[in-house]
Design a protein that fits this description.
It is built from seven helices and no strands.
Length: 156
């Protein structure tokens, strides 16, 4: 097979790949933000449900294993479960998305540094999703977007 025949076969493939990439790049961010918000919400909601399923065990974990600095274990457990119960609801609604993402990034950093440093691959995934939400917001399918449009008018 000569070089010209090989390159002529590559043209349709290259055009096909370019077409797929163009279609993917046209996917609105708002559609991508929905699963980002839901994925992060699920992680933290599930963690809250685990703690609430056996509160005595949760307190024991904060006392013996988690070693969060500056806070007594019972206060740390209450703070953690409060964040894990409220922020997922806010994320799913797309309400206060950027502040929520910042709070969860902070919580992720505390978990990474003081609780499970060996779980850094998972924490990087959480942080990546949260950074996108922090930088780009919740998208147009959110309470944040609706409220901003109401406050600033339809030109937003």
């Amino acid at each position: 097979m000569n070089k010209d025949a090989s390159s002529s076969r590559m043209l349709p493939l290259t055009a096909c790949v370019a077409g797929v990439i163009q279609r993917l790049e046209r996917v609105p961010y708002a559609l991508l933000a929905i699963p980002l918000r839901a994925a992060v919400a699920a992680v933290f909601w599930n963690s809250a449900m685990t703690k609430l399923a056996n509160w005595d065990t949760a307190i024991a974990l904060f006392t013996d294993d988690y070693k969060v600095p500056l806070l007594p274990p019972d206060i740390a457990a209450y703070v953690a479960v409060s964040i894990e119960l409220t922020t997922p609801v806010l994320l799913v609604l797309g309400l206060a998305t950027r502040p929520v993402a910042l709070v969860l990034l902070g919580m992720t950093a505390v978990i990474e540094v003081f609780v499970y440093p060996q779980a850094w691959p998972t924490h990087i995934q959480w942080a990546a999703m949260l950074l996108v939400l922090l930088c780009r917001g919740p998208g147009w399918f959110s309470v944040d977007h609706w409220m901003r449009r109401r406050l600033e008018g339809p030109e937003w």
